[in-house]
Design goal:
Chain A: Residues 1-22 are annotated as: Disordered. Chain A: Belongs to the binding-protein-dependent transport system permease family. CysTW subfamily. Chain A: Residues 95-312 form the ABC transmembrane type-1 domain. Chain A: InterPro entries: MetI-like (IPR000515), MetI-like_sf (IPR035906), Phosphate_PstA (IPR005672). The complex is a heterodimer of chains A (326) and B (263). Chain A is mainly α and 326 residues long. Chain A is built from twelve helices and no strands. Chain A has helices spanning 3-8, 11-22, 26-72, 92-123, 128-141, 145-159, 166-190, 194-202, 207-235, 239-242, 274-284, 290-324. In chain A, helix 4 (92-123) packs antiparallel against helix 9. Chain A starts with a helix and ends with a helix. The relative contact order of chain A is 0.12. Mean pLDDT of chain A is 86; it is low at 1-12. Chain B has one domain: Rossmann fold (3-Layer(aba) Sandwich), CATH 3.40.50.300. Chain B contains ten helices and ten strands. In chain B, a hairpin with a 2-residue loop joins strand 4 and strand 5 (82-83). The two termini of chain B are 33 Å apart. In chain B, helix 3 packs across helix 4 (128-141), helix 4 (128-141) crosses helix 6 and helix 6 (161-173) packs parallel to helix 7 (191-206). Chain B has 263 residues and is α/β, with parallel strands linked by helices. Classes of the chains: A mainly alpha (326), B alpha/beta (263). The A-B interface holds A 125-126, 193, 195-206, 209, 213-214, 217-218, 323-326 and B 62, 64, 67, 69, 91-96, 99-100, 102, 104, 106-111, 114, 118-119, 122-123, 153-158, 168, 171-172, 175.
Chain lengths: 326, 263
């Protein structure tokens, strides 16, 4: 471009633009100013909201940890059995019960949920039946857990005569967990771009191969995150367990035969969990240090769930790298 | 056969022809009766404005439209004397023989090697040496081998868009198809990547593959194809040798389209 071009042909539009910049219309200025003010206001309001949430959550976490600190540093607290009448009891059986129930629940609910989600997203024809199933799952996932608990009591505890037991508790938690898991897995599968499935089908693969080898691996990080987050909810659940897994924790011994109530793996023994323990000692506890025990249990519960969340992120990322070679 | 290929001048033995193929989406007709035939070793371009039915036609050749709920394909799709649009035809076999490359590059979220080996494995190739050989051969066919040979186990997503599309072509060629359907394979790519894909298309045809390509780009159609079919509003209007279609269109609508009057 020569200087002649720049001064000659280009001059007019530049001058015009400068005029516009110097003297924009009043309407235009007002609109721009209003948009800027709105943007600033939104930034301030949103920041304040987020700060409030973070401060609130941090305060709760700090309070729970501080209240439970006394028991957390007590070396026997995590392993000893609870005391009925005197101070110094632990939460050993409750801690084990919580994990055992969680593992059993996931072992039962994960395959069922995965199958249901795959069926609903990949196989089910779009139609009234599928829509009813989806609505039912959504309704069930927001059902109050005490309702699920009472249903579990009527079905497993009373009708099936399993009593207050780990099996009754695990199946009740399964009912509580399946709708949540199905939704999470369904969303994860639906978030995989459609062209991935098309690519697999166009290569002459079956829907099953496309699902197992393409869709599920691509959705795996989201599935893992969802499963572990739902595990956090199951782990902290109390209402569904009070009338199904019971409120007593027999002292456990690995030496006991499998039929004994003391055998940790016996699924027909009653099993109070951490969350139920907190509820129970606060409502009917008589030990002198019940406030400390309750706070300590709450702190342990929270640390476990925090650990789940951190593990969820790390595991999700690691699995993603492994499955996608990224 | 003659009514299936009304515009064919030469006597041919088509690898694929369609006879009055129609496509309806939930009772709404998207493609009127279309009869075309395709020979081995040729490139056929399907052109026309958006929504004219060219992609719909392409996706009915390997019956991919069946994956869309409410879609019904009518008429006959005859592949090597077998009408594949019939009950009891194994679509898995058909799609292995009739490959497809999509508009957006859609490699799997796997390594470059696995993108190709995965479908081979599920079609029964299990020996590592066979897989290695086929992966290399198909990557060479898609002119991608030299660029990726040192990073076969890296993610396919680390590749550029053009490389990803060539990987998708390699993935299709690995199954040794004799027909390859391409649905606007270059529309998401820059001119250099487009040029590389066009070279690959010409190369595929020279090795006897029947290539059918949907394209928006008429320069591309005239560069790569031997024959061209023009679609408009769900109807195949005119089909002929590419120089004739672009140089001496018979139908007024094609003439208007080529002169930019619409579309």
């Amino acid at each position: 471009m020569t200087s002649k071009d720049a001064t000659g042909e280009k001059n007019a539009p530049v001058a015009e633009a400068e005029d516009q910049a110097k003297a924009p219309s009043a309407d235009y200025t007002a609109t721009v100013r209003r948009a800027r003010v709105q943007d600033k206001a939104a930034t301030v309001i949103l920041t304040v909201i987020v700060v409030l949430i973070i401060v609130g959550l941090a305060a709760i976490i700090a309070y729970i940890l501080a209240s439970g600190a006394g028991k957390l540093v007590d070396p026997g607290f995590l392993t000893k059995k609870p005391e009925q009448f005197k101070a110094g009891g632990g939460i050993g059986p409750e801690l084990f019960n919580s994990f055992y129930l969680l593992v059993l629940t996931l072992v039962i609910s994960l395959p069922i949920s995965l199958g249901a989600a795959i069926f609903l997203t990949q196989y089910a024809p779009q139609g009234p039946v599928t829509n009813v199933a989806k609505t039912a799952i959504e309704t069930l996932s927001s059902l109050p857990s005490i309702v699920v608990g009472l249903f579990g009591m009527l079905t497993f505890v009373l009708t099936f005569h399993w009593g207050f037991s780990i099996l009754s508790g695990a199946l009740t938690l399964t009912m509580f967990n399946i709708p949540i898991l199905v939704r999470v897995i369904q969303q994860a599968l639906e978030a995989v771009p459609r062209d991935q499935r098309d690519a697999a089908l166009a290569l002459g693969l079956t829907r099953w191969e496309a699902t197992v080898h393409v869709l599920v691996p691509a959705a795996m990080p989201a599935i893992v995150t969802g499963v572990i987050l739902s595990a956090g909810r199951v782990f902290g659940e109390a209402a569904a367990l009070i009338y199904t897994a019971g409120q007593s924790a027999p002292e456990l011994s690995w030496a006991a035969p499998i039929t004994s109530l003391a055998n940790p793996l016996n699924v027909f023994r009653p099993a109070e969990t951490l969350a139920v323990h907190i509820w129970k000692i606060n409502s009917e506890g008589v030990v002198p240090d019940l406030t400390a025990v309750s706070a300590g249990t709450a702190a342990v519960l929270m640390v476990c769930i925090l650990a789940f969340n951190i593990i969820a992120r790390i595991a999700g990322r690691a699995l993603e790298r492994r499955l996608t070679a990224e | 056969m003659t009514e299936a290929a009304p515009i064919q001048a030469r006597p041919i033995d088509p690898v694929l022809h369609t006879h009055d193929v129609t496509v309806d989406y939930s009772g709404k007709r998207a493609l009127n009766e279309t009869s075309l035939s395709f020979e081995s070793g040729t490139v056929t371009a399907l052109i026309g404005p958006s929504g004219c039915g060219k992609s719909t036609f392409l996706r009915s050749i390997n019956l991919m439209n069946r994956e869309i709920p409410g879609c019904v394909i009518g008429g006959k799709v005859v592949y090597h004397d077998i009408n594949v649009n019939a009950r009891g035809i194994d679509t898995l076999w058909l799609r292995k023989r009739v490959g497809m490359v999509f508009q957006q590059p859609n490699p799997f979220r796997k390594s470059i090697y696995e993108n190709i080996a995965f479908a081979l494995k599920s079609h029964g190739m299990t020996k590592r040496a066979d897989l290695d050989e086929r992966v290399e051969k198909s990557l060479r066919s898609a002119a991608l081998w030299d660029e990726v040979k040192d990073k076969l186990h890296d993610s396919a997503y680390a590749l550029s868009g053009g490389q990803q599309q060539r990987l998708c072509i390699a993935r299709t060629l690995a199954l040794d198809p004799d027909v390859v359907l391409m649905d606007e394979p270059c529309s998401a790519l820059d001119p250099i990547a487009t040029f590389a894909i066009e070279e690959t298309i010409t190369d595929m045809a020279s090795r006897g593959i029947c290539v059918i390509i949907v394209t928006h780009n008429m320069q591309q159609a005239s560069r790569v194809s031997n024959r061209t079919a023009f679609f408009l509003m769900g109807t195949m209007v005119e089909c002929g040798d590419t120089p004739q279609i672009f140089g001496a269109p018979k139908d007024q609508r094609l003439n208007d389209y080529l002169n930019g009057r619409f579309g």
